[in-house]
Structures are given as structure tokens and as C-alpha cells.
Design a protein that fits this description.
By secondary structure, the chain is an all-alpha fold. The protein has helices at residues 22-31, 48-59, 67-74, 76-100, 111-116, 123-156, 169-184, 193-216, 234-245, 254-260, 266-295, 311-344, 363-366, 383-403, 408-434, 440-453, 460-508.
Length: 509
């Protein structure tokens, strides 16, 4: 059921865009969307700021250092436009997730739970894609740690090379696993807010480092030409397009954040999306523009690695290690939930008896009221199951990171399918399906909204206002459904383009 009630005056209307009448607003604030509701799992304990911190840390990773290279291929104008456009489309996908969560019990929102009431027999495919994507990204973080730490040690002391294990990537992967293992066993995403703060401090240092070198102009002798309007060509631009599009991927953790945030009104969750994506976009633009203007077309894939070796640069490389280290648990969290959902999945047979479109849907067929009727996967994992799945993910990722030096080609395909699915395709398809006027879930939601807004004894003016509000709300919902379908179509196009591009470059090399 919907859960986004107006709390403490955070919103001035309902989440479908219909302003509340004066006679109904107080009743809506007290009990709207709460009749018969029950909490599932651990919910309502995270603050707004901790949710923003975790979401920004999920968004911004080591890929921020490749933004200047993307700008060198696209030109400043086109590159800036694509960074902004990618942020807007990613934010819209997150917004649709907040709308979809209204149809589920408080604390039970997930891709699996939504697929159970939209595309039940495809749920296992969706969650398998999410699990593989998050697992692959987590492994790449361990590989980055193994590659960078020997350089960091050598940067602080040239004599470190005489000690074999200090320049051995396997040693550093193992050592940092001892740090991330306890963090990976935390149940709540909100428990990672302090490590996310440390990761964001690392990001802040990297931004300051890039900005400082730009202001000092100590890279001018190595700077190439600058493209403002022109681009390097269609193929180079296409090769950098996925870097920017996937830079905003954080949708795998959005439902967990919605489950845990203490005040989940539509205003709060929308501002959460705006603040998180806006902050990440600002970081990307700042690093992309200043990094590109520092080196011009000679910029490489890691702008920090191009600076003259110094203590500041070495600290910057250490900051990257800290960033990916504390981002690893943020990938384990959704991976564990998706693996659990895949293991719980069972094919659902369609009932032979169909409900009449004009009949009033029973609550039992719409939104779960008790444990026995909850959507599969909405129940909290038992301790043994939780520990087993987490341990399996950690062990497998460690083994892969120790035996494979690069996952670049595999991650290119995983990102093209998994990232586009969870960022654009699934949020668009889920909302379009569940918000259909013929959907019993949507009709039940609208009926409760109308019951909450209707005064006990409405006057003629109040009836007129309600009619106008209802028509405006219907128009907004129709527009939002069209836009959600457009987002899903956009995601399919991005997926095809990225898959073709990856195949072309792999064959070419």
C-alpha cells in the first residue's frame, strides 16, 4: 500500500499532484496511507542526510576521474550537456522508484516485490541481472585496490620496493578484505553512513586536488588543444558515452533507502533524489571541466595519475583506494538482496478466474496485509541465510579478484545490460504497468486517496475544487505514465548502443 503521507507539513498535496482541500488535509496528515498498514523489516530509522550521503557515495566512484577524457572526446559543450542529461534521466528513474514504492508495504519495497505484482515470472531475470551487475562492480573495486596500493606505498617510500609483499597486489586485496568483511555483514544500509562520510571526504580531496592543479596552471606545458564545440568524432564520442550514462547508477540501493528513511513523504524522497543526483552532477562537471582544461586533449583515463608525482598526488591515489573500499559494501547489500530473491523465486501460475474490471478489488489481492500474504521476498532474511549469502558473495568476489587482473571487457557487457535495466528500463516499465487505470493495485490506491480527501459533508465549492483537482491529477498521471514508458524505451536504446559499441571495440582490438 502507499506510504507517502504528509508528515509535519512536508507536502502540500498528495503524491499524485492533487492539492488537499482544507477540510481534508488534517485527516490526511494523520492517517493517510496508513490504514491497515504494517511495517516489514527494519524501517523508519534513517535520517534524510544519511540517506543522501549513502546515495551520493553509491553514485560517485572512481569513474569520476575518467570524466575529463570523456569531455576531450565530446567537446566541452556536448560533454556538459550529456552529463546534465544523464543526471536528469537517472533522477527520473529514481523518482519513479519512489512512486512505485507507494504500492508496497512500508519496508518491503524492492525490484523483486514490484515484479511480483507486475511481471511475476520475469522477476528472477531482473534480480539475476542486478546481482551479477553488483557482484561485478564489487570485484572491480577489489581489483582497483590491488592495482593502486603498490603505487601508493612506492609513492610514500621508494624503499618499499625491496619488501616483496608491499608491492604484491594479492597481499593488499587480502588485507583490505579484512576491513570490508565486517562492513558487508551489516543488515541496514544506514549503518554504512559513517564509512560513506569518509568516502565522500576522499571524493572531496580528489576534487580539490584537480581544482588546485587547474588554478596553479602547473600542467600547461603538457596541455593539448581544447575542444569547446567540436568533437573528436562519432566513434570516440560513442566510446565515452557509457562512462557518463552509467556514472549515475545507484538505483540498486534506492529501495533500501526508501525502506529505511524515517520520514518517507513524497516531498522528502523527491528532495533526496534531487540533492543526491545534483551533488553528483556538480562533482562530475567540476572534475570534467577543470581536469580537461588542465591537460586538454592529452588527458588520460585517470586524471590524478597524470600529475607530477608528489605527496599530494600519492594521497590522491590513496583517496581512490579509500573510496572504492567503502563503496564495496554498498554493492554487497543489493547483491545479497537480489541473490536471496532469486533463491526464493518460484513460477507463478495464472488464476483461471479473472476479476471483473468493474468489481471492487479485494484488499487481499492487492497489497499484502499479513505475513502469509506478503509478496515473496518481502520478509526479512533469517540470520543463517543472511550470513551464508553474504559469505558466499565475499568469498567468490575475493577469489575472482585474486585470480583475474582485469574485468574490463566483462564489466562493459554487465554494465550495458544491468545498469540500463535498473536505471531506466525497470523503473519505467514497473511504473507504467502498476499505474495503469485498469490495474487493481492502482484503482485501490486511488480509491483510498479519494476516501481520505472527501469531506464528511462537502459544500458546493468543495465539490467543485475536488472535481478540478481530480481532473488535474488525472492529467499529471497520464503524462507521468507516458514519460515512464519513454524512459524504458530510452533505456533499451542505450543498452543496444552500448552493447554494439562494446562489441565493436573488443573486435577492433
Amino acid at each position: 500500500m502507499p506510504t507517502y503521507s504528509a508528515i509535519n507539513g512536508d507536502v502540500d498535496g498528495d503524491s499524485d499532484g492533487r492539492p488537499l482541500t482544507a477540510s481534508s488535509s488534517s485527516r490526511s496528515r494523520r492517517g493517510r496511507f496508513n490504514r491497515g498498514k504494517k511495517d516489514v523489516g527494519i524501517v523508519g530509522q534513517a535520517s534524510w542526510i544519511s540517506s543522501v550521503i549513502n546515495l551520493v557515495n553509491t553514485i560517485v566512484g572512481a569513474g569520476v576521474l575518467a570524466m575529463p577524457l570523456a569531455l576531450s572526446r565530446m567537446g566541452i559543450l556536448l560533454g556538459v550537456l550529456i552529463i546534465i542529461w544523464s543526471g536528469l534521466t537517472a533522477a527520473f528513474g529514481l523518482y519513479l522508484q519512489t512512486r512505485c514504492a507507494r504500492y508496497l508495504e512500508r519496508g518491503s519495497a524492492s525490484f523483486f516485490a514490484l515484479s511480483q505484482i507486475t511481471y511475476p515470472n520475469a522477476a528472477v531475470i531482473f534480480d539475476a541481472a542486478i546481482a551479477i551487475k553488483c557482484f561485478g562492480v564489487g570485484v572491480s573495486y577489489l581489483i582497483i585496490i590491488g592495482d593502486l596500493m603498490p603505487r601508493v606505498v612506492m609513492g610514500f617510500s621508494h624503499h618499499a620496493g625491496s619488501v616483496d609483499f608491499l608491492v604484491d597486489r594479492h597481499f593488499w586485496v587480502t588485507a583490505f578484505m579484512l576491513v570490508v568483511i565486517p562492513l558487508s555483514f551489516l543488515r541496514r544500509l544506514d549503518s554504512l553512513k559513517y564509512t560513506s562520510v569518509i568516502a565522500l571526504i576522499s571524493i572531496g580531496y580528489l576534487v580539490i586536488l584537480v581544482l588546485a592543479h587547474f588554478i596553479k596552471k602547473d600542467t600547461m606545458q603538457d596541455r593539448g588543444d581544447i575542444r569547446i564545440i567540436n568533437w573528436a568524432g562519432f566513434v570516440p564520442t560513442l566510446s565515452s558515452f557509457p562512462v557518463i550514462v552509467f556514472a549515475y547508477t545507484c538505483h540498486q540501493n534506492m529501495f533500501s533507502i526508501l525502506n529505511e528513511i524515517s520520514i518517507n513523504s513524497q516531498f522528502r524522497t523527491t528532495s533526496l533524489v534531487s540533492a543526491s543526483v545534483g551533488s553528483a552532477g556538480l562533482i562530475y562537471l567540476l572534475v570534467a571541466i577543470t581536469g580537461y582544461l588542465s591537460f586538454g586533449n592529452n588527458v588520460g583515463g585517470n586524471v590524478v595519475g597524470m600529475y607530477v608525482p608528489s605527496v599530494a598526488t600519492t594521497i590522491g591515489q590513496a583517496a581512490i583506494v579509500i573510496l572504492v573500499m567503502f563503496s564495496y559494501p554498498l554493492q554487497v547489500h543489493p547483491c545479497r538482496a537480489s541473490v536471496d530473491a532469486v533463491l526464493k523465486w518460484r513460477p507463478i501460475k495464472r488464476s483461471s478466474s479473472r476479476q471483473s474490471p468493474n468489481s471492487s478489488p479485494s484488499r487481499g489481492h492487492l497489497l499484502p496485509m499479513g505475513k502469509s500474504t506478503s509478496p515473496p521476498g518481502s520478509e526479512s532474511m533469517g540470520d543463517t541465510r543472511f550470513a551464508a549469502i553474504t559469505a558466499a558473495i565475499i568469498v567468490l568476489s575475493y577469489v575472482v579478484a585474486m585470480t583475474v587482473a582485469s574485468l574490463e571487457k566483462v564489466l562493459a557487457y554487465v554494465g550495458s545490460t544491468g545498469s540500463t535495466s535498473i536505471s531506466f528500463i525497470l523503473p519505467g516499465l514497473f511504473y507504467y504497468k502498476i499505474s495503469s487505470p485498469d490495474s487493481p493495485h492502482h484503482r485501490k490506491l486511488m480509491k483510498e486517496d479519494d476516501d481520505d480527501e472527501e469531506p464528511a459533508d462537502p459544500s458546493e465549492d468543495e465539490r467543485l475544487i475536488q472535481g478540478n483537482n481530480r481532473r488535474a491529477g488525472n492529467w499529471r498521471r497520464k503524462l507521468l505514465r507516458r514519460l515512464s514508458l519513454a524512459l524504458a524505451a530510452y533505456g533499451i536504446i542505450v543498452m543496444v548502443v552500448c552493447l554494439v559499441t562494446n562489441t565493436f571495440f573488443i573486435v577492433a582490438h
